[in-house]
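debug: dumping io for the single-chain case to check the tokenizer round-trip. Nothing else runs in this session.
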Amino acid sequence: MFPVHRPRRLRRTPMMRDMVRETHLRPEDFVYPLFVQETSPKPEPIQAMPGQSRHTIDSLVAEVEKSAEAGLKAVLLFGIPKEKDEQGTGAFIDDGIVQKAVRAIKEKKLPIAVITDVCMCEYTSHGHCGEIVDGDVHNDKSLELITRTAVSQARAGADIVAPSDMMDGRVGAIRGALDEAGFDQVAILSYAAKYASAFYGPFREAAGSAPQFGDRQSYQMDPANVLEALKEVDTDIAEGADMVMVKPALAYLDVIRAVRERTNLPVAAYNVSGEYAMIEFAAKAGVLDRDRIIREVLLSIKRAGADLILTYHSLEMAQKLK
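debug: decoded output
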């Protein structure tokens, strides 16, 4: 007997497919990562990330204005200082590049949240995410620098701080420091499960943050582990995280799903620079349909359970979806 159920009935026309579609992309699903630098008087295109730039403050503000107009609700800022040192002091000084950029955006009174990346690797001369002691990143000494950075960014006007360093105890330390400084309403988006991934290559060119020795495997997560990611998520939630993130996204869809099933907090996923670059260069080579693949990748991340998707395609997608 021929099957009674014919699933193709509901796939027959665009209208039918739209009506029963399970997963939808909206502008408010996306967070737009942006680079701001004080190393050049004009924006600098990032060769490894076609279509992206290291912005000046003026060009950054213009990009944020376009983002708000397109319906995006948040941007994430990475800073590239003119000078670096052993402790990464450019990350937490009041006139640091990110602090100045936050103030410039806030002056425009745009309906968009400003998230600031809290890490040291863009600011340290050695390229690691904390303070070096005896040739290694010292966890607890690094927390002092990280918390100073978070408080400085909150003082500049950041709505959300996002620690990405993967030091143990960082969320609790930041929460305590923010509360003590009077910033109890500033939220924490924790890079809870950040893997030691090869997909970060283009970002390191963009931010000039490649380690000058060794690697980050002693503090970023082993790509083989999922249970460890859940432990990291549990720990960060217990320490006061308001949202948790999985990074990268595309190669870690199973982790996104596991985290989604673990918590009722908002879950973010970072569609990172290498994932972005693969699409852009493959499309340039003519081997895939760029628009379709972007949408398919972002749908897969949302379908896996992400509430928020950090992607360099944010503005483009928001403009198309608006």
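debug: round-trip ok. The radius of gyration is 20 Å.
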